[in-house]
Design goal:
Largest sheet: 6 strands, mixed
Order of helices and strands: EHEHEEHEHEH
Distance between the termini: 31 Å
GO molecular function: oxidoreductase activity
Protein name: Multimeric flavodoxin WrbA
CATH architecture: 3-Layer(aba) Sandwich
Number of domains: 1
Number of helices: 5
Pfam family, one: FMN_red
InterPro entries: Flavoprotein-like_sf, FMN_Rdtase-like_dom
Number of strands: 6
Radius of gyration: 17 Å
Shape: globular
Structural class: alpha/beta
Helix content: 25-40%
Length: about 200
C-alpha cells in the first residue's frame, strides 16, 4: 500500500534565508526513515506562504492556507516540524494549529472531522529544554482536530543548555535520535496503513 506524508516546516526562516534550517534536517531524516515503509513524503516551508491569521479554512484574498490545507488532508501522515523559542512552539507552528481550529466545525455526516483517519507526528529542534512541553501542546491540539497520534511519535533534538550548536551543525545524527526516528517512522506507517484500510466509523446514527 502506497502511503504519503506531508511535512510542514514551521521554522522562523524562509527557504530563501542564508541560514540553514535544523528543522528541515530533522524532517528530512524522518521522511528518509519512512521510505522503507512505503511512504513517499514532501517538506514545505510555512514562511514561503502567506498564512493569514484566523481560525477559518479560508481567510480570503491572498491567503495561502487553503492550498496547504489540501496537501495536509491529502496525505496519510502529517508532520508538524518546529523549533523551540522561549520554551514554546514557534509562533509559525501556533498559527498553523490555529488555522486547523476550523476542522472542529467541518464534520461529515458521521461527525468526523477532516483529519479523521490521518496520522500526525511532531518533530522538534532547539537549543533549550522544552521539547516535552512543546510536544504536549502540539499533540493535544492535533488530537483535538481529529488527527490520530501513534505511539512514540514525538521526535526531538535539543542541544546543550546555553550552547550554540544546532542540529544542522552535527556531523551525524546522534544514535538515540536516529533510533527514535526509526521507531516513529515504523509506528506511523503501520498506523496510517491500518487507518487507510479501514476508516473510523464515526457516530453511527
Amino acid at each position: 500500500m502506497q502511503l504519503t506524508a506531508f511535512a510542514l516546516n514551521c521554522s522562523l526562516k524562509a527557504s530563501g534565508d542564508k541560514e540553514k534550517s535544523s528543522t528541515d534536517r530533522l524532517l528530512a531524516d524522518l521522511l528518509a526513515a519512512l521510505v522503507p515503509h512505503g511512504v513517499k513524503g514532501e517538506i514545505v516551508r510555512s514562511l514561503d506562504h502567506d498564512i493569514k491569521a484566523g481560525v477559518l479554512s479560508d481567510m480570503g484574498k491572498g491567503d495561502d492556507w487553503p492550498k496547504l490545507r489540501r496537501k495536509i488532508l491529502a496525505a496519510d501522515i502529517f508532520v508538524l516540524g518546529l523549533p523551540i523559542w522561549l520554551g514554546q512552539p514557534s509562533s509559525v507552528a501556533k498559527r498553523v494549529l490555529e488555522r486547523m481550529d476550523a476542522f472542529l466545525d467541518e464534520t461529515d455526516g458521521q461527525g468526523r472531522m477532516p483529519a479523521a483517519g490521518k496520522v500526525a507526528l511532531v518533530a522538534i529542534v532547539g537549543n533549550e529544554d522544552g521539547a516535552h512541553h512543546c510536544h504536549a501542546a502540539c499533540f493535544q491540539a492535533l488530537n483535538d482536530v481529529g488527527f490520530t497520534i501513534p505511539a512514540n511519535s514525538g521526535i526531538y533534538w535539543v542541544g546543550e543548555a546555553m550552547g550554540d550548536v544546532n542540529y544542522i551543525d552535527l556531523p551525524e545524527t546522534p544514535e538515540k535520535v536516529a533510533a527514535a526516528i526509526e521507531m516513529t517512522a515504523s509506528n506511523a506507517a503501520h498506523l496510517a496503513g491500518l487507518l487507510k484500510g479501514e476508516a473510523y466509523p464515526g457516530v453511527l446514527r
